[in-house]
Protein backbone atom coordinates (compact mmCIF):
# COMPACT_ATOMS: atom_id res chain seq x y z
CA UNK A 1 0.00 0.00 0.00
CA UNK A 2 2.74 2.47 0.90
CA UNK A 3 4.52 1.66 -2.36
CA UNK A 4 1.38 2.51 -4.34
CA UNK A 5 0.99 5.83 -2.51
CA UNK A 6 4.68 6.66 -3.02
CA UNK A 7 4.39 5.86 -6.73
CA UNK A 8 1.27 7.99 -7.06
CA UNK A 9 2.99 10.90 -5.30
CA UNK A 10 6.03 10.61 -7.53
CA UNK A 11 3.97 10.57 -10.73
CA UNK A 12 2.00 13.61 -9.58
CA UNK A 13 5.19 15.37 -8.55
CA UNK A 14 6.72 14.73 -11.97
CA UNK A 15 3.69 16.28 -13.67
CA UNK A 16 3.47 19.31 -11.41
CA UNK A 17 7.20 19.94 -11.69
CA UNK A 18 6.61 20.84 -15.32
CA UNK A 19 4.48 23.86 -14.35
CA UNK A 20 6.53 26.78 -13.07
CA UNK A 21 4.82 28.80 -10.34
CA UNK A 22 5.60 31.92 -12.38
CA UNK A 23 3.28 30.64 -15.12
CA UNK A 24 0.50 30.27 -12.56
CA UNK A 25 1.17 33.84 -11.44
CA UNK A 26 1.07 35.06 -15.05
CA UNK A 27 -2.33 33.42 -15.53
CA UNK A 28 -3.85 34.69 -12.27
CA UNK A 29 -2.68 38.27 -12.81
CA UNK A 30 -3.85 38.19 -16.45
CA UNK A 31 -7.30 37.11 -15.30
CA UNK A 32 -7.37 39.92 -12.75
CA UNK A 33 -6.40 42.56 -15.33
CA UNK A 34 -8.26 41.04 -18.29
CA UNK A 35 -5.23 41.79 -20.43
CA UNK A 36 -1.84 40.23 -21.08
CA UNK A 37 -0.37 43.68 -21.70
CA UNK A 38 -1.58 45.16 -18.42
CA UNK A 39 -0.64 42.00 -16.50
CA UNK A 40 2.87 42.13 -17.96
CA UNK A 41 3.18 45.78 -16.94
CA UNK A 42 2.02 44.96 -13.39
CA UNK A 43 4.50 42.08 -13.17
CA UNK A 44 7.33 44.14 -14.70
CA UNK A 45 7.90 41.69 -17.51
CA UNK A 46 7.57 41.68 -21.28
CA UNK A 47 4.16 40.87 -22.75
CA UNK A 48 5.78 38.30 -25.04
CA UNK A 49 7.31 36.52 -22.02
CA UNK A 50 3.98 36.45 -20.20
CA UNK A 51 2.05 35.34 -23.28
CA UNK A 52 4.56 32.56 -24.00
CA UNK A 53 4.40 31.41 -20.37
CA UNK A 54 0.62 31.18 -20.48
CA UNK A 55 0.72 29.32 -23.80
CA UNK A 56 3.22 26.83 -22.29
CA UNK A 57 0.98 26.47 -19.24
CA UNK A 58 -2.06 25.75 -21.41
CA UNK A 59 -0.10 23.18 -23.41
CA UNK A 60 1.19 21.43 -20.29
CA UNK A 61 -2.25 21.15 -18.65
CA UNK A 62 -4.15 20.52 -21.87
CA UNK A 63 -6.69 23.27 -21.16
CA UNK A 64 -7.31 26.59 -22.88
CA UNK A 65 -7.39 28.98 -19.93
CA UNK A 66 -8.16 32.19 -21.83
CA UNK A 67 -10.22 33.29 -24.79
CA UNK A 68 -8.14 35.94 -26.52
CA UNK A 69 -9.53 38.92 -28.40
CA UNK A 70 -8.40 42.37 -29.45
CA UNK A 71 -10.16 43.67 -26.33
CA UNK A 72 -8.14 41.51 -23.94
CA UNK A 73 -8.54 38.09 -22.40
CA UNK A 74 -11.37 36.33 -20.64
CA UNK A 75 -11.13 33.04 -18.77
CA UNK A 76 -12.89 30.06 -20.32
CA UNK A 77 -15.16 27.93 -18.17
CA UNK A 78 -12.37 25.39 -17.64
CA UNK A 79 -9.97 28.30 -17.17
CA UNK A 80 -12.04 29.71 -14.31
CA UNK A 81 -11.85 26.37 -12.50
CA UNK A 82 -8.12 26.17 -13.13
CA UNK A 83 -7.53 29.77 -12.00
CA UNK A 84 -9.43 29.19 -8.75
CA UNK A 85 -7.02 26.37 -7.90
CA UNK A 86 -4.00 28.33 -9.14
CA UNK A 87 -4.90 31.25 -6.85
CA UNK A 88 -5.14 28.86 -3.92
CA UNK A 89 -1.74 27.35 -4.73
CA UNK A 90 -0.12 30.79 -4.98
CA UNK A 91 -1.72 31.94 -1.73
CA UNK A 92 -0.47 28.80 0.00
CA UNK A 93 3.04 29.26 -1.39
CA UNK A 94 3.08 32.89 -0.28
CA UNK A 95 1.95 31.83 3.22
CA UNK A 96 4.59 29.10 3.31
CA UNK A 97 7.34 31.56 2.40
CA UNK A 98 6.07 34.07 4.96
CA UNK A 99 5.85 31.36 7.64
CA UNK A 100 9.38 30.12 6.94
CA UNK A 101 10.76 33.65 7.43
CA UNK A 102 9.36 33.90 10.98
Automatic annotation (TrEMBL):
What top-level branch of life does the organism fall under?
Bacteria
Q: Mention one GO molecular function.
A: DNA binding
* Any one of the GO CC terms: protein-DNA complex
Using the record's annotation, list all stretches that form the HTH lysR-type domain: 19-76
Pfam families in UniProt: HTH_1
UniProtKB keywords: DNA-binding, Transcription, Transcription regulation
Q: Which InterPro entries does the record cross-reference, listed alphabetically?
A: LysR_HTH_N (IPR000847), WH-like_DNA-bd_sf (IPR036388), WH_DNA-bd_sf (IPR036390)
Q: What Gene3D superfamilies does this protein map onto?
A: Winged helix-like DNA-binding domain superfamily/Winged helix DNA-binding domain
Q: Of which family is this protein a member?
A: Belongs to the LysR transcriptional regulatory family.
Protein's name in the database: HTH lysR-type domain-containing protein
Organism listed in the record: Bradyrhizobium jicamae
